[in-house]
Amino acid sequence: MKSSDYIIRYLHARGVEVVFEVIGGMTTHLIDSLCLFEKIKVIPMHHEQSAAFAVDAYGRIKGKPCFAMATSGPGALNLLTGIGSCFFDSTPGIFITGQVNTYELKGERKVRQSGFQETDIVAVANPICKAAWQISRPEEIPAALEEAYDCSVTGRPGPVLIDIPMDQQRCSLPDTFPEIKMPIPDPLSVEAEKGIHELIKDLEKSRKPLILAGGGLRSAQVVAEFRKMLTSLHIPVVNSLMCVDALEYRSPLRVGMIGSYGNRWANKALGESDLLIVLGSRLDVRQTGSDKEYLTKNRVVWHVDCDKEEINSQVKGCRPIVAHLSSFIGRMSELVKQYDFDQTKWQDWADEIVSYKTKWPDTAELNDITGINPNAFFHRLSEFSGAAAVFVADVGQHQMWAAQSLELGSQQRFITSGGMGAMGFALPGAIGAAVALSGDPVVAIVGDGGMQMNIQELQTIKRNNLPVKIVVINNASLGMVRQFQESYFSSRFQSTVNGYSAPDFKKVSEAYGIDALSVSGAEEVEAGLQSMWKNPSEPFLLEVKIDPKANVYPKIAYGYPLTEMEPFVAPIEMECT
After folding, report:
1. What is the pTM (predicted TM-score) of this model?
2. Stretch 47-62: mean pLDDT, rounded?
């Protein structure tokens, strides 16, 4: 069969169901093969970056890859931010780029370019991919596809890229596929088994244990197993930004989010703990603050990760357990049954944490602003959004308010761009999530700045009639950087307020054929949310105007331990990230 037909049919045989793409000359053979095969859903996007973000969100929801396609040159390069998002946040995804014919490639010649739009995308993408290949002969295609899929889903999941010259897309290949073998997870090592036993001994002695749930729990698809393990352990749980949905909001073991913009009481609980079990979190500065030594100075820290390089990389002095979280949780669940970890063992500790939460409620952090309190708004949004399967947050102040205050149900998901921290993620991410869910509503939470970065995908939502509810938190500025300028640059707001503007999002949405409403007062919020959810299966845009001066609090006072947070304490150093 034609090699482009082989590529599409092989991916379908591996369970790939969707492609997000922007057509170009160098992918026309592949697009035509998709058209003829008809068993993979094709979602044309309006920008390749959006296609890549959609792959990222789809992979997080499904736990398996779909793929994106782009043509050579600008199309391939436009994928890079989304590829990087997959790489940093451990999401499986397959990226296929068209390339000029092999006889047009510059090869070793010392010229900038030979074929039109020729770009060495493999060299450019390599640092943010688990693997990347360029096909030079048609017989390489079967092995490359097999290796690409397996590489994407094994170990720490991530993106892979295959660059296929146009002449290689129209060659002939046998019409049989190699035998498909599912990857087998590595068993626990002797060292990991020993570490688990030592960890349990430390738990027996602990008075104030805490688990930090990181994004690795979601990447490893073990959240259900993690929750089941907690029924035996009864240990309070804090979460990173990448695992806001580790536990439902009402769970008695859920504490809250830690980190730079974490809940004040959660950071305080971490500071008071005597034992910290880190599951799938890399402990970067956004979680620990600048005083990284503080984390291991006053407590025992056990760090579990499938990648040994992540342990004792950012925070030194952690006790390592190198293991896939599925293996760790499975073994831990078996062993803890032999110990007396009943729910009363750490009740005093749980009560202490509740006292912190009572003392510092999230809705009181911004009690002096006018208009809509963003933390209070996200509690109200949660009340009305029981039908939502996923909340997809963009990057900025709204992202942190949402992570601080959303009240997630047991089956609701929260996804955002973490390691890449890419504005413009939410709208295409919501498309990827909605396609993965096949009908369940998705809420996209986006700022006025991020909304303008991929606003063209409103057309994709409308064309596919996707049930995406778009909440635009409009503070008429690029708020997170504006807050940074307020702290460190004497409130010189160049490019965040001065030189920045936004359109009337209600009118823009309506121009795309999507119903919209704008609210600016607390008394209008309920009616706005009712309108948004009047037809759950229809897209809708709700613009929420808030005080441009609203800051995200609490915030770690840079230079101090993570327990010391603004506005109660002023930073003594300038943030490095």
Report:
1. 0.96
2. 98
